[in-house]
Amino acid sequence: MTFTPLPGLLAIARLGAGDAVPSWATGAFVSITRTAGELSIVCDESGVPPGVRADRGWRALELRGPLPLTAVGVAAKFTAALAAAGISVLVIGTFDTDILLVKAERFDEALAVLQ
After folding, report:
1. What are the structural domains, with CATH classification, of the chain?
2. CA distance 18 to 71
């Protein structure tokens, strides 16, 4: 598995389930997920306005793909290694690959574990 660091710092923001997707949800990597209980946005942290409920200071690693949607255990393999090192992550799956979010202060350590 090969991971490529993505540029910039990200924030994970939480809005209400019925809220519109805001114009500030921009950046090199953006993920927008709506559930019955929330609108969750991962985007460039510099665009998230003050007062928006958000956790800032995340970095992203992209797993080199494309990966078939039928692949089994891919995320389990890399998250197990990071969990053993005590590194918390957020995994976002796309059609082609997985994006791994790690707090910036643990980013270099996460890279070392994944290598």
Report:
1. 3-114 (3.30.2130.10)
2. 33
